Amino acid sequence: MLRLDGVSKTYKVGALARKDLHAVRDVSFELRPGEVVSLIGESGSGKSTIGRMILRLTRATSGTITFDGTDIATLRRGSLKEYYRAAQGVFQDPFSTFNPVFKADRVLTMIRQVYFPGTGDVEWRGRVDDALSAVSLNPDQVLDKYPHQLSGGQLQRLLIARALLLDIRLLVADEVISMLDASTRIDVLNLLADLKERGLAVLFITHDLSLGNYLADRTVILRRGSVVECGATSAVFGDPVHPYTRTLLASVPRLGIRWSDEDLDPGPCRYHAVHPGGGPPLAEVGDDHLVACFAGNDERECV
Amino acid sequence: TGADGPNAGSGGDAGGGYPRAETLFTSGTQWGPPSNWNPIMNWTYATGTVGLVYETLFLYDPLTDEYEPWLAESGDWTSDTTYEVTLREGLTWTDGEPITAEDVVFTVELGQIEQVPYHNLWDYLDSAEAVDERTARFTFADPRYQQWANWVYFNPIVPEHLWADKSDEDVTAGANENPVGSGPYLYETHDQDRQVWVRNEDWWAIEALDLDVAPRYVVDLVNTSNEAALGQLLEGNVDLSNNFLPGIASLVDGGYQLHTYFAEPPYMLSANTTWMIPNTTRAPLNDPAFRRALASSVDTATIVNSVYGRIVSAADPTGLLPIWDEYIDRNVVGQHGFSFDTGEAKRLLNQAGYRDTDGDGLVENKDGSPLELTLATPSGWTDWNEAARVIAEGAEAAGINLVSETPADTVVQDMRESGEFDIILDNQRQMDNTPWRYYEYVFGLPVQEQQTTVNYGRYENQRAWDLVNQLDATRIDDLDGMNGIISQLQRIQLTELPIIPLWYNGLWSQANETVWTNWPSAEEGSPGYLPSMWRGYPQRGAIRMLTELRPAEQQ
Amino acid sequence: MSDDPSATKDAFTASGTGREALFFARRNRKLVGGGVVVLVFLLVALTGPWFTTDDPLAYVGPPGAGPSGEFWFGTTTFGQDVLAQFVHGLRATFFVGTVAALIAGVLGMVVGFTAGYRGGLVDEVLTMITNVVLVLPVLAVLMIIAAYLEVRNIEVQALIIGLFSWPWVARAVRAQTLSLRAREFVDLARLSGAPVRRIVFREIAPNMASYLFMVFILLFGGSVLFAATLDFIGLGPTDGVSLGLMLNHAKQWSAMDLGMWWWFVPPGLGITSVVGALYIMNVGLDEVFNPKLRET
Amino acid sequence: MLHVDDLRVHYRTLRGDVRALDGVSFSVADREIMGLVGESGSGKTTLGKSLIRLDGRMRHVGGTVTLDGTELPIGDDGRMNAFRFNDVSIVPQYAMSAMNPTRRIGTMIRELVTSRGIRFDTVRSELDRRLDLVGLDREVLDRYPIELSGGMKQRMVMVISTLLNPKLLVADEVTSALDVSTQRAVALALAGFRDRDLVHAMIVITHDVSLVYQIADTILVMYAGKLAEKAPTDVIVERPLHPYTRALIAALPEVGVQYAGKRLTGIPGGPPSLRPPPPGCRFRDRCPVAFDRCAEQPPFVEVEPGHSVACWRAS
Amino acid sequence: MGRYFGRKLAIYALTFFVAVTINWLIPRFMPGDPVSRMVARAGMQTPEGVAAMREYYSSLFGFDVPVWQQYLNFWGGLLTGDLGVSLWAFPQPVSSIIVAAVPYTLGLLIPAILLSWWAGNKFGAYAARKKVLDNTVLPIWYVLTATPYMWLAILLAWALGKVAGLFPVGRTFSASLRPEWSWVFVTDLVSHWFLPFLSLFLVAFGGWAIGMRNMVIYELESDYAHYLGALGAPGKLVRRYAFRNAMLPQITGLALQLGVIVGGAVVTEIVFDYRGLGYLVLEAIKSSDFFLLQGIFLFIVIGVLVANFIIDVVYVLVDPRTRAGMGGGA
Ligand SMILES: Nc1ncnc2c1ncn2[C@@H]1O[C@H](COP(=O)(O)OP(=O)(O)OP(=O)(O)O)[C@@H](O)[C@H]1O
Ligand SMILES: Nc1ncnc2c1ncn2[C@@H]1O[C@H](COP(=O)(O)OP(=O)(O)OP(=O)(O)O)[C@@H](O)[C@H]1O
Ligand SMILES: [Mg+2]
Ligand SMILES: [Mg+2]
């Protein structure tokens, strides 16, 4: 359904935009209906940039992103609107996703103005109630309130409800839970899981490995804009190959297991084992399990 | 008042200043830094260049109507077409060279350069020659006695030995630093804000006329504004202010030791006439009847009393200055003169066919089209701006839609020269040796595309112009002859009203008596000279003011 | 002071808490006091001309008379009523301040929003222009322009002042827009298919409302002072009255040397009071909108 | 040895006082790292700040804090100054911006130390040692804060705060803004300070239970301005008694756990308002096991050695 | 860092170019032709005289070549310091008139700008920490900034000069003195300088004090100040840091205010009849001396640009954040 092909993003930074910052380099992956893909990486690795490119909030510098076979870069006004009917996003900070000047339910009204101008009040109210109950929100508690009167979890769910008002098939969830309390967070995660059951594809962006693992069918590990490892979640988490992935996993604080220095040794470069003389960016090391060369992106030689 | 008081720097040269008791501080003439000392550039040279340094053949005193031989010992018409001038004996330039008839001839011949202001001298002058060391003879093709009399007192003689090598540009636009003349003062120094002259101890008049100038230094201060000058005058930092100082009337009796020519209104001598100049090429201003109605609508008394606080006086209908009183034909004025009378103005309008057809209280043109006139005065000329408001109000009261506008003065100047105006104010004729200069201004022909000096209203009356030329060719001592012509001119002027005289501007002059006394005054026993340092006034006798000044008694 | 980054820092916190702001507004002595002064002067400016003569330039009294029962503020050298000139002049002051502030505010906002929201080359160019106008010595430019304008009335004056006062507004608005643009509700609006104009005016601008209001006050004050300066040096309107022109006239007719203090004290006091009260109101507003500055 | 006894700290606001700390009593032993966890708004930061410096709106309403037998004058800003840095110190939540941006770090430290009446030379060598300890180059002292990465700044602040070997160190959310690998380094550095006995006792505030589990000896759980439970780390994780603690632990996903396999559940509802808080047990409304008695505030009592809890069901 | 300055320089160069071009356009687009003006002033009576003079002045002012060449000549003259001839003080070169006036203006402006900035900052920082003081002086400062320059100047001149007679009003030094390095003269110069200086100082002072006060309040609320407080650093150190950091925006503020302050000097010089550039501007305007006006405008523009650049450099030197930001690294 959604396909990224060699997508790169270069930001021009510095005085007179003379410096290039390669935020995303040559990233490719695919998202199928009803599938959750989690995109994991440390801060600044380009996760949000990928999400924004998919939502066409930012344009890719090179590569193509296709949705149902259409290159989204070609979308114009009307067709873009249709694209947004099917693909929506929810962001990290629920408080900044709401315009603090206005009531929270304005995000719903905006959808009505653009997508359902002809809908009657009663019918609309019905839709809103449906969407809210899908995210287990009580309409009386959230409608007609200012954002600061609602909790982060409520706001985040309201945003998902907003997406549900449309017939979305793809949801980009960019760190939707990192600002939430441990207890609230799980509710939102469970909600996403339910949506997946309803056939929704979710791109789940996070830096928290345990959360990425909880939900995802497939996992993509990003480092400095490049994919270092990807594949089925069970494969990536069960048999992390790339040293970076291993470091990440070893650093995750887990209840019941204290940090130790084991598991950090990745052994010889598995990419080179497959492609000794170099080859595609990712090498297949198992069933639905790809990995990049162990060397960083900057070094040419793998030692 | 601290270091700034009149006695500051009284330690003499050693103290770094000009000894106060020996220095005369003047202001009111110089409106930009002293920038040239070229007597030919008679509109811009540093104050004192002519008079204190360069001198003229004669002085002319308008108050007594007398010519006083100055560099010249005498000057006479030896025939109808020849004039001979004899210089005093033993005159020298301040560099020691003798002043000779050749210098006089040279100066006159400079007029052949087109850019020299008196170039038109050669329209009627045939030749000039030095007869001997001291005598110069001028032969005229078409003698213009009045103009020539004007020339001999107004234009200074320059030294040939220093000027002969100058290029035409240098003569007409050069700065002439280090001026060498013959007068009572020498160039001392100048600065952005002042011109300083120091006494010439070898001045010829000390011996020849037993005259000497009292102040050792004359410091002429550059003006920034009139109000600043007032402050300086009140503090005694300026001895003579030739600035327009509104409100001075209320200060004369205020214990500031202020002195004016008259002790009561108008305090000042009248120096020139302010006219309202209608553009006679435009309807309805081309209609003498309308101009007359307009003239009657002006409340001159309010201008004199309120705008000027009575330091000016209302003008005679002819506009001739008080010094020219003898030339005014009272009969003509009695018959054709005008005065402020709103009712009369309305009557005249009605009679001439200007009626209020749309009932707004303002008359329309004869053809019924709306009539709207503007009176332009340069912005920042506050007294004129105020006066223009009063004029506009008076006109409105009479039913004339007259609006006062204040464009930048360059704009007004352009309007004036190109004739792109309805009505303006002007006052470009000073008191002078002959009313011919006045009538030349009023009737000057031919009208050119750009009118740069005369007849801005573009009034065309060949007969009047012929009379003016006839007047010019009349001898200056032929009073009856002059009056005969002038009377005819006045009849034309008052029936046609090409200009509308309103008030006499003063010869602005206020002195502080703290340091110097014996200022010119109308009082019995005081010197009656013109109290002004304005350009052109030293030769009108004002230089004699300096010879009459006395240091104040020191306490 | 006008470009004070501190003023922008917490502008966001202003929003959404309208009732709280109102609560603080009413309690804030600076805001209330300043507001009262401004309102009183506004009232005088609006109604005053009915109580004084129609023509403030008419010669209605004795020349140069001090304040008296008949002429509260005395008369000018010509016998014009200073009070009448004052109330008419106040009108001009409010007019110039408002119009110039509106022009500069709108220009600054348009440039600032465009530069901040569009970014890229548009931003570069606009920022460049802004900086160029910003470093021009504005008063010198205004003087030159004013000196050569043939028609000079209050409207023109307000216009040219407005045309040169916008750059710092543009800079501030751009900076705020940049930071607001990065906020996620803007992305959300884009995801909702809202057009650019709507995003700028319905999403970004309301968040800066309190800031823009304060900017307007500063612009108003600045314009009034600018206008007074121009008037004073004789480059003001060529007709009509204004407080600056009164000062100009008082100076030109030597009110100081003639001891006519009543001629030059009221106009200056009027300007200072109005602008000062507005500035103090601004501090009050800042305190209202910005919790950090509130007195505890 | 830190004793906190019935500490009450309120925030003054227009609409009445917020009772952010409503009677908390606990102690921290020497060489103990105590993790302080709880939901957002439960009063963790308030507690940390109370031990160091009350800000303008905070009011010390009651209770005492005793450190090694000396009572801290926490309500008196002036007298408290003598204890700060020397005896009690903090690594603040905002470590990213805690250093003066326009001063070289070394200069700032020198000025800070000097201002406390200590000659810089005397701590200079110690400073270098500490930098080595947390893995920072000594040359960072010549740099400006902006030239350091987040993790470096965090560690730098730790070094500064502990420079005078305080008896008590409060570390507030020191790792929240960092990514996992840096988080680990910083947390371990923190534990290192205790291990080398540079700090006697430490309170580590976080909302991440799994993180404190890695380094803390005991964990104190707060809920809505009150203490819920305190116990040694393993006890809290394995045998929590308070229903809130249990729910909190249960809501933590772990690597390897998938929703399909083990669906975690959150805690329904939200914490009560603290302005003023409702009577009785504050967790009552969200508690699956609440009963009548909960209308009364349960005391915070020790149910076994080192394990205290505030719940009627538990005691 | 080089790139940062490159960019700044580009802006300044562009500003300069724009300003010069505007400047060049002035006499060519505005009403009133300088040539006619000179001719008219001379009162030429004969048509030949008028024609000859026109020709002379046209070539003197360089109006006798095609427009593009006039523009190039203008730049050429500019770069060689030839700003043409003044009409107001004909035939003095504009440059020498400006050179004579500049010391007075700078003597007035530089102390007024720097002292008001320094004192305003000191005082503002001081007031920020004392609630009572703050509440009393803040309104005064606001009133000061709200005061029209000229009114304050008039009041000072009237009260201290005319009524109290403490200081002379008008002129740069007494007319009775010769400019020289003597005690009498210098005292006189200073006593004339004082009131204009004071008026400029006062009006600017309020603005700086307010700015500083606000900045310090924010700085005292910032994280590093809280951290220092938590470590028991004495208030003195915290305030010193707050002051230093608050100073940085004030430096930028100084650059921005320069243009405005130049304007203030114009007015002050008018009120006090002080012969600096401001007085020249007005004279040039009054007498439509385009060339002088062009020259002064250029001078002011260059002055403001140079001052801005210096301030930029200073700013970079004192604020590590800009340096780090500029490097592009960090
Ligand atoms: N608009 C932009 N202009 C310039 N650089 C940008 C822009 N947006 C992001 N970047 C840079 O691109 C890189 C990737 O940013 P991105 O936000 O995608 O990272 P991320 O993985 O989402 O990080 P985080 O976990 O902090 O959200 C970063 O170095 C960031 O600084
Ligand atoms: N300045 C303040 N004014 C009023 N109330 C405050 C203030 N600061 C905090 N509070 C309130 O005090 C309570 C405790 O806040 P505190 O910051 O201690 O929580 P926390 O546990 O640290 O939360 P977080 O995990 O979000 O940091 C909260 O209800 C909060 O709303
Ligand atoms: Mg991100
Ligand atoms: Mg906290």
Automatic annotation (TrEMBL), chain A:
<keyword id="KW-0547">Nucleotide-binding</keyword>
<protein>
    <submittedName>
        <fullName>ABC transporter ATP-binding protein</fullName>
    </submittedName>
</protein>
<dbReference type="InterPro" id="IPR027417">
    <property type="entry name" value="P-loop_NTPase"/>
</dbReference>
<dbReference type="Pfam" id="PF08352">
    <property type="entry name" value="oligo_HPY"/>
</dbReference>
<dbReference type="InterPro" id="IPR013563">
    <property type="entry name" value="Oligopep_ABC_C"/>
</dbReference>
<dbReference type="InterPro" id="IPR017871">
    <property type="entry name" value="ABC_transporter-like_CS"/>
</dbReference>
<dbReference type="Pfam" id="PF00005">
    <property type="entry name" value="ABC_tran"/>
</dbReference>
<dbReference type="InterPro" id="IPR003439">
    <property type="entry name" value="ABC_transporter-like_ATP-bd"/>
</dbReference>
<keyword id="KW-0067">ATP-binding</keyword>
<feature type="domain" description="ABC transporter">
    <location>
        <begin position="2"/>
        <end position="249"/>
    </location>
</feature>
<dbReference type="GO" id="GO:0005524">
    <property type="term" value="F:ATP binding"/>
</dbReference>
<dbReference type="InterPro" id="IPR003593">
    <property type="entry name" value="AAA+_ATPase"/>
</dbReference>
<keyword id="KW-0813">Transport</keyword>
TrEMBL record, chain C:
<dbReference type="InterPro" id="IPR000515">
    <property type="entry name" value="MetI-like"/>
</dbReference>
<feature type="transmembrane region" description="Helical">
    <location>
        <begin position="125"/>
        <end position="148"/>
    </location>
</feature>
<dbReference type="InterPro" id="IPR050366">
    <property type="entry name" value="BP-dependent_transpt_permease"/>
</dbReference>
<feature type="transmembrane region" description="Helical">
    <location>
        <begin position="92"/>
        <end position="113"/>
    </location>
</feature>
<feature type="transmembrane region" description="Helical">
    <location>
        <begin position="154"/>
        <end position="173"/>
    </location>
</feature>
<keyword id="KW-0813">Transport</keyword>
<keyword id="KW-0812">Transmembrane</keyword>
<feature type="transmembrane region" description="Helical">
    <location>
        <begin position="31"/>
        <end position="51"/>
    </location>
</feature>
<keyword id="KW-1003">Cell membrane</keyword>
<feature type="domain" description="ABC transmembrane type-1">
    <location>
        <begin position="90"/>
        <end position="282"/>
    </location>
</feature>
<comment type="similarity">
    <text>Belongs to the binding-protein-dependent transport system permease family.</text>
</comment>
<feature type="transmembrane region" description="Helical">
    <location>
        <begin position="211"/>
        <end position="235"/>
    </location>
</feature>
<protein>
    <submittedName>
        <fullName>ABC transporter permease</fullName>
    </submittedName>
</protein>
<feature type="transmembrane region" description="Helical">
    <location>
        <begin position="261"/>
        <end position="285"/>
    </location>
</feature>
<keyword id="KW-1133">Transmembrane helix</keyword>
TrEMBL record, chain E:
<feature type="transmembrane region" description="Helical">
    <location>
        <begin position="292"/>
        <end position="318"/>
    </location>
</feature>
<feature type="transmembrane region" description="Helical">
    <location>
        <begin position="181"/>
        <end position="204"/>
    </location>
</feature>
<feature type="transmembrane region" description="Helical">
    <location>
        <begin position="254"/>
        <end position="272"/>
    </location>
</feature>
<dbReference type="InterPro" id="IPR035906">
    <property type="entry name" value="MetI-like_sf"/>
</dbReference>
<keyword id="KW-0813">Transport</keyword>
<dbReference type="Pfam" id="PF00528">
    <property type="entry name" value="BPD_transp_1"/>
</dbReference>
<comment type="similarity">
    <text>Belongs to the binding-protein-dependent transport system permease family.</text>
</comment>
<feature type="transmembrane region" description="Helical">
    <location>
        <begin position="97"/>
        <end position="120"/>
    </location>
</feature>
<keyword id="KW-1133">Transmembrane helix</keyword>
<feature type="transmembrane region" description="Helical">
    <location>
        <begin position="9"/>
        <end position="26"/>
    </location>
</feature>
<protein>
    <submittedName>
        <fullName>ABC transporter permease</fullName>
    </submittedName>
</protein>
<feature type="transmembrane region" description="Helical">
    <location>
        <begin position="140"/>
        <end position="160"/>
    </location>
</feature>
<keyword id="KW-0472">Membrane</keyword>
<keyword id="KW-0812">Transmembrane</keyword>
<feature type="domain" description="ABC transmembrane type-1">
    <location>
        <begin position="102"/>
        <end position="311"/>
    </location>
</feature>
